[in-house]
Write a sequence for this structure.
């Protein structure tokens, strides 16, 4: 073996180590990005699910009462319902959920605590002053 060949062999190992380190670094970064996106998707699923349940119970007969359960992001601690006009502004206490949303004709509680990344609640179709209102509890 020539001296030049012996000197180039450690450079191959250094190059391979650098490539492996870059793969791990960017791989972990991509995995974290995917996990963050998954948690943000849970915010959207919550919003769409609550709106869908709200619309379904709104169309049913007065007195109808149905319990539901929805998933929320892993760092969520509670879901807040703030009174606004004739409804509620709904927001999730989570670093992943930045947007709040509004549902008209919604009455009831002010917040729901999160248990095991799930929120359980009951929607009831009631009549108040000859107007259909959904009560959340």
């Amino acid at each position: 073996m020539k001296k030049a060949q012996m000197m180039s062999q450690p450079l191959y190992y250094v190059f391979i180590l650098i490539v492996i380190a870059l793969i791990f670094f960017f791989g972990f970064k991509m995995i974290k990005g995917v996990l963050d996106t998954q948690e943000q998707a849970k915010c959207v699923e919550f919003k769409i699910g609550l709106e869908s349940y709200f619309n379904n119970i709104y169309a049913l007969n007065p007195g109808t009462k149905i319990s539901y359960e929805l998933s929320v992001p892993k760092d969520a601690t509670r879901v807040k319902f703030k009174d606004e006009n004739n409804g509620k502004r709904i927001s999730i206490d989570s670093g992943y959920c930045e947007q709040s949303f509004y549902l008209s004709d919604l009455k009831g509680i002010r917040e729901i605590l999160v248990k095991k990344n799930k929120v359980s609640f009951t929607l009831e179709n009631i009549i108040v002053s000859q107007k259909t209102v959904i009560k959340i509890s």
